[in-house]
Amino acid sequence: MTEKLAIIGAGPAGLTAALYAGRAFLEPLVFVGPAFGGQIATTTEVENFPGFPAGLQGPELTQAMREQAERFGARIVEETIESVDLSQPPFKLASSSNRYEVEAVIIATGATPRKLGVPGEDEFIGRGVSYCATCDGFFFRNKEIMVVGGGDSAFQEGLFLTKFGSRVRIVHRRDEFRAGATLQARAAQNPKIEFVRSAVIERIEGNGKVKEVVLRNVKTGAVETTPVDGVFVFIGHKPNTELFRGQLEMDHEGYLTVDSRLHTSVPGVFAAGEAHDNWFKQAITSAGFGCMAAMEAEKYLANK
Known about the structure:
Helices cover 23% and strands 26% of the residues. It has 6 helices and 17 strands. The chain has helices spanning 12-23, 58-71, 133-136, 152-161, 181-189, 283-303, and strands at 2-8, 29-31, 75-77, 83-85, 91-94, 99-107, 111-113, 129-130, 144-148, 167-171, 193-196, 199-206, 210-217, 223-227, 230-233, 237-239, 269-271. The strands form 4 sheets. Strands 1, 2, 3, 4, 5, 6 and 17 form a 7-stranded mixed sheet that branches. Strands 8-15-9-10-11 form a 5-stranded parallel sheet. A 3-stranded antiparallel sheet has the order 12-13-14, with no helix packed on it. The longest helix is centred in the last third of the chain and has 21 residues, at 283-303. The protein is elongated, with a radius of gyration of 21 Å.
């Protein structure tokens, strides 16, 4: 049996697409993948998603989105799609246990922040370790903040975090930063920002929440322990699009190429969220992209 629509991914983009597709009577299959809810499901406090003035937990938000989508006929499939054939419709998808044929696909597989890979990092995610200044900066008012990275993102987010933190130290493993000259100049002129060059974090320590980090100078090998309340890591994201390499157009970083209506290079295949969005990277924008992709998929199927 050929299904009308498959949505690969169940974060804010995929679940919003499921809601809209369900309300259009498409009865979409929503493949959860390795982690239901996406990145936001690992966030303890979400205070910037409209409609929740008191805030809520990330898992609460995604569970509510799931229930709303299921109410309108979305079918959640607890499987990970491991291979696809997008050469022609019906498109073929396969998990480890089942095969599917679908007339249209929405890719909402998201992206994964690149991690430092040091002891303590995973332990303190949501308790002092973050990969999103917009999401979590507010929780570090008048606190000591450390930003890891040397590119534009690290500087942009570091400047943003000066609105909250008492001090923001930007740590980079090299002597020279990769950020643009204008960003570097702005950061150098900000009295809250300090630079720590030629240094890496060896480990992150704390008791329930981050208390300090151990820094190592890559030139001298000298090690020091530095008190800090928040560690924000901005060393890049990796879009979860390897599954589609060679079948869909993507940029040099692996983000899917889409037009203004979220059509990929293959008619009938759409993308929503951080699988293509290398700029905004917010739950609310991903949800908006999910809405757009579902509306376009409905039009595509209606025209067929």
